[in-house]
Amino acid sequence: MPHRTIHLFRKGLRLHDNPTLLAALECSEVVYPVYILDRKFMTSVMHIGTLRWHFLLQSLEDLQKNLYQLGSCLLVIQGEYESVLRDHIQKWNITQVTLDAEMEPFYKEMEANIRRLGEELGFEVLSLVGHSLYNTKRILDLNSGTPPLTYKRFLHILSLLGDPEVPVRNLTAEDFQKCRPPDLGLAECYRVPLPVDLKIPAESLSPWRGGETEGLQRLEQHLTDQVSLDFTWVMLVALGELRLVSSFYVWFCLDLEKLLSCRVLFQLWLSFPLPGLSSWQPSLLSWFNPNQQLNTTQPLT
């Protein structure tokens, strides 16, 4: 029997390479794309300043626009996470909640709470890996339950896992047409808030605009300029060293709001390799992310 599904956007504010949303559309009669703006939770587990608020709101606006073009909409609901879920699961007769698997401890705890709520209210929870080249649980399992502490050990574990999964196909309007969209009135009721609604100073705009569309455009431009993925790999031949120089914008896109898929980046890297680099160098995308690799209690912002 098809599900009535809430798809929770958390940090994966994108439509490309979104395996969880694709799975939700394939097994549901109606899908409610929801972002819960729990300001109390967000400010309690991370440092979030004015620039990041603007980046987040711009990313939500872009996601709303992209969903609208495919015949759906984004519902931004403000309030405490569990209370919002409890109320709307009952109001919309939800039978399934889908969300991307996260690695930060506070997001993992949130997922555990959602699963407990599912047992209480009788809905299923589907969680798939979409933010990393590999399932980090498998990496830990192959390393006796602990993170590999050297890059050499990390590469050994990856060699046991094999190649990363390829990105899933892009979503289309036909995917959303298979499901009944949310009522049009809900989009106005649960619109993306403006900075003034959250008392965020408008004059603190960042030179980096948020959103999947902006991230993909920058990626395309850098590929056109033959600078792969906004990462410049500098080979220090005389010293025999490799140094990674990454832009602040890509850090935002990859780590903070997950606007760009690392699996897409990996596949593009294979298409545009630089001389002298092994095929495993893109694994540094994971290795140099301290939140994912060392599982710290707070993300770096």
UniProtKB/TrEMBL annotation:
<dbReference type="GO" id="GO:0043153">
    <property type="term" value="P:entrainment of circadian clock by photoperiod"/>
</dbReference>
<dbReference type="GO" id="GO:0071949">
    <property type="term" value="F:FAD binding"/>
</dbReference>
<feature type="domain" description="Photolyase/cryptochrome alpha/beta">
    <location>
        <begin position="3"/>
        <end position="133"/>
    </location>
</feature>
<keyword id="KW-0157">Chromophore</keyword>
<dbReference type="GO" id="GO:0005737">
    <property type="term" value="C:cytoplasm"/>
</dbReference>
<dbReference type="InterPro" id="IPR002081">
    <property type="entry name" value="Cryptochrome/DNA_photolyase_1"/>
</dbReference>
<dbReference type="InterPro" id="IPR006050">
    <property type="entry name" value="DNA_photolyase_N"/>
</dbReference>
<protein>
    <recommendedName>
        <fullName>Photolyase/cryptochrome alpha/beta domain-containing protein</fullName>
    </recommendedName>
</protein>
<dbReference type="GO" id="GO:0003677">
    <property type="term" value="F:DNA binding"/>
</dbReference>
<dbReference type="InterPro" id="IPR014729">
    <property type="entry name" value="Rossmann-like_a/b/a_fold"/>
</dbReference>
<dbReference type="GO" id="GO:0032922">
    <property type="term" value="P:circadian regulation of gene expression"/>
</dbReference>
<dbReference type="GO" id="GO:0005634">
    <property type="term" value="C:nucleus"/>
</dbReference>
<dbReference type="Pfam" id="PF00875">
    <property type="entry name" value="DNA_photolyase"/>
</dbReference>
<dbReference type="InterPro" id="IPR036155">
    <property type="entry name" value="Crypto/Photolyase_N_sf"/>
</dbReference>
<dbReference type="GO" id="GO:0045892">
    <property type="term" value="P:negative regulation of DNA-templated transcription"/>
</dbReference>
